[in-house]
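Minutes, structural biology subgroup

Action item carried over from last meeting: produce the structure token record for Sporulation related domain-containing protein (Candidatus Kentrum sp. DK). EB confirmed the sequence was re-checked against the source entry. Recorded below for completeness.
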Amino acid sequence: MRWIFFLLLLVNAIGFGWWMHGFLFSAPSRVSASAEAGVALLPAGAERLLLIREADPTELVPRSPPPRRSTNPTAASKPRPAPVTGSNKAPLPAVPPRVCYRLGPFPGKDVKKTQIDAVRTWLDARRISVKLHRNQRREVRLHWVYLPPFKTIDEAKKQAARMKKKGVRDIFLLRRGDMKNAISLGVFSQRASMGKRLDELKRRGFAATVGSRYGTKKATWFTVAPPAGATFPKSDFSRRFPSLEVAAEDCN
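Output recorded by EB:
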């Protein structure tokens, strides 16, 4: 019985060796054939990936990532407010600039309290705020009519003689100072008197020059500030107080 066991063992060994011999010599041919064809061996049922060199370049399309889903459902469904354009805004009404006025002047020495009180009462009745100011202002005191200086005193004398022949009176020659050799034809405190003198000289053929002499004078003024949006009744005020000036000024 022992020899039968060893015989079966020998037969199995010979069969296993023959099977291994056939597998080892046939596998390289299969691998080389697959390598030559550029195809890798895959398990049954597996999907083979397409190599880039195997694809048609004209059929390649880049993939775009899928859109992200909002994690906040209310934010996605909430509509955005429409932008506000300039045409939707209502234009603001233009605010007229505020204008104040200066009333006066009242003479410094001869000012009458009754006149100041009358102006104040007139303004208070119209609810116009008022402030009283006293100051000194520069004004023309005298108007001087003259002929400009001549080069020499002899020329000035000849001109004065010609004027006297034509009936011009009140001629005075200046012999010193900055106006040396000038001919003075009168000094007037009123513009009306000055105008008459100029007309007289013009009729006789002479054109004179007018100079002004300034001085300071104390004066009293009213500064009024009408309410915002209101206007000062200039015409009514001038009819009521014709001797006073009405001058617009900055409220600041």
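Discussion: The first helix runs from residue 2 to 37.
Next step: EB to file the record with the rest of the batch.
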